[in-house]
Design goal:
The complex is a heterodimer of chains A (250) and B (344). Chain A is an alpha/beta fold and 250 residues long. Chain A contains 9 helices and 10 strands. Chain A folds into 2 domains: 163 residues, Rossmann fold, CATH 3.40.50; 78 residues, no CATH class. In chain A, 47% of the residues are buried. Chain B has one domain: ABC transporter involved in vitamin B12 uptake, BtuC (Orthogonal Bundle), CATH 1.10.3470. Chain B is built from 12 helices and 2 strands. In chain B, strands 1-2 form a two-stranded antiparallel sheet. In chain B, helix 1 runs antiparallel to helix 2, helix 4 runs antiparallel to helix 8 and helix 10 runs antiparallel to helix 11. Chain B is globular, with a radius of gyration of 22 Å. Classes of the chains: A alpha/beta (250), B mainly alpha (344). At the A-B interface, helix 2 and helix 3 of A face helix 6, helix 7 and helix 8 of B.
Chain lengths: 250, 344
Amino acid sequence: MTLLAVSGLTKRFGGLTATDGVDLTVEAGEVHAVIGPNGAGKTTLINQLSGELVPDAGTIGLNGRDITAEPVYRRALMGLGRSYQITSVFPEFSVLINVVLAAQAHSGHSFSFWRPVAVDTALTDRATSALTQAGLSAKADVSVSALAHGERRQLEIAMTLATQPQLLLLDEPMAGMSLAESERLVRLLASFKDRYGILLVEHDMDAVFKLADRISVLVYGRVIACGDPTAIRANPDVRAAYLGDQDLVA
Amino acid sequence: MNSPTPGPQPVPHEAPPHSQRPVWRVTPSRLVAGLLLAALALVPVIAAAIGEPFYVTLFTRVVIFALAAVGLNLILGYGALVSFGHAMYIGIGAYAVGILAHHGVSNGWTQLAAALAVGAAVAVIIGLVCLRTSGMAFIMITLAFAQMFYFLCISLKQYGGDDGLTINARSDFGLFSLTSNTVLYYFAFILLIACLVVFQQLVHSRFGMVLRGCRSNERRMAALGFPTLRYKLTAYVISALVCVVAGALLANLAKFAAPSYMAWQASGDLIVMVVLGGMGTIVGPVAGAVALLIFEEILAGWTTHWMIVLGPMIVLIVLTAKKGLYGYLVDRDARRMASGGPGA
């Protein structure tokens, strides 16, 4: 089943075409990685998928519904969960409350003015289970400011999971992580495979080749190749355009 | 931060099962809040005892502006929306009472209902326009709307225009009338307490959490699935309506409604009260209103150039106690609580 179907997506900033006729699909249970050199338009692509940027042309479909014109929040409610390249959590709240807030977004309206969120067990239970999934349950009551960098990235993912997504848009989840942290995250993401479709934008090639079922290579806003990791590794265009003389994976 | 540094040593204990409600403790900030409100509750008694009924009038003004500042703080402190036009809502409340009284309607309920209805309608429309902007643009556009209303009221010649509108009789609520200064004081005081209690609950409720989430990262809130505009608009309207009520009380106190109530300086005073007391704390704006208006009163009796003294004093307080007079205490308590928690 196709979760995400992108066709002919185009975005121009003045004379620069940041996204140039991109076609892309993510199937249920698939990890589709998007790689490309700096400035290839990866984050611009993600921002259009999540709704923060409006494309100039093309369509985006989620579960067979056209969401090209939907605002950010409605895409999130339809099952599109996004994590940010720059960790984007709420520093004034505890770890648990950060995730409670994410769960709250997906449990009806929030025009409730009296009952404290912290005693709403329906929300805290869902948040706790998302924290457990992300491997962060021991830190539930800790202040976000006391988290290590890698733990903040895990929190970011726990928040995304608490929104009960079908498709995860992960924008460089390994950015700034230590080797051990990123290995742990790879194992975590691998365990999500059968439950969510994942669109992964990532610089860490080890992680990409371990996780991805399919890889699209983005250069100057265009997809120059798409295929399974072995095919991408062997593709001469990819080697020339993206990696120059270097080996794709050491 | 006092977090244990991540290192080779094992964490000595399991994370405690998170208690749903932390134990309620008397902290300095809570003690000060309690004393402040208790002192305000006793003002008419003390004024009668020392034979200075003027203090009731002075403190009625303090309580009314405290109410307005608490209202503004909901969006300024908890939503990071700096409205430079909230005096407009004080004006709407005052003119609703004034205009109805002018036409012989002195029933307080009718006046209050009319004030709230007009205030809500204006706040929804203006809020929908202003909330599409943020930061400096939001400050300027709220100021622009307030100035529009200011000049609108000046142009209302049949209601006194520039000179303002004298109100012959204070509001009559049937069960009680605001004719007595003491009744007016306690009416304002009870409304202030009610507002504090409701806001104390509100900031920890689902609605409050959304508002506070938008304060620190609105983009993330949208990505989580919150339609942020409608929550911010609701907060803006609630905040405006509190100021409308304050305006209706102010008209009763002064028996007068004037365009100067909604001058930009009045909006600025409200912001100073919130910042001076501590934005984003429930009782902070009350402390700010008390401090500002009492300083003003004392200094004005001392010299006509009181602003020369008050200005630097505010700067000094805001620079030393960065989170405001009351906010400083809350912050200190929070830090103590954190260091007294697990791991210390």
